[in-house]
Design a protein that fits this description.
The chain is mainly beta. The protein is built from one helix and eleven strands, in the order ββαβββββββββ. The strands form three sheets. Strands 2, 6, 7, 8, 10 and 11 form a six-stranded mixed β-sheet that branches. Strands 4-3-5 form a three-stranded antiparallel β-sheet. The longest helix has 8 residues. The relative contact order is 0.25. The mean pLDDT is 94.
């Protein structure tokens, strides 16, 4: 079964995530990186979850990753694949896999970033098989 894009609900944009969503509107994926320990993290937050430092900066991610885990939602009105994708930079984020054969998706499969329109809000990061 080929999974296509579906209508996605617009996210709520909070002041602390505005830079993330503004970049998404430009077709860029941002993650935070700690200036003290060097680790990247996602979801966006004010302090590093690894060392507690508040010296964190937005950095552009490569858009490359691998599928860590996934589930195919076949009984939804429009079937979709939800997945945890581990980015090349290290953090794992929840997203959707689109333009893929649901029966061919595998854990460890390389994926690349794409953006999908949301209903009345910024585009959302989704991934396609590489």
């Amino acid at each position: 079964m080929l999974i296509k894009e579906r209508k996605l609900v617009a996210p709520t944009v909070y002041p602390e995530t505005k830079a993330f969503w503004d970049a998404a509107g430009e077709g860029r994926l941002l993650v935070k990186q700690c200036d003290d320990c060097g680790d990247h993290h996602h979801y966006p937050r004010a302090a590093c979850p690894f060392c507690g430092s508040e010296r964190v900066q937005w950095r552009q991610a490569s858009g490359k990753g691998t599928i860590y885990s996934f589930s195919v939602m076949r009984r939804a009105e429009v079937p979709y694949i939800i997945a945890y994708v581990t980015l090349a930079e290290g953090p794992t984020m929840m997203s959707n896999i689109v333009d893929a054969d649901a029966d061919a998706v595998r854990i460890g499969q390389p994926v690349t970033l794409k953006f999908s329109a949301s209903e009345g809000g910024p585009p959302l990061p989704v991934f396609t098989p590489a």
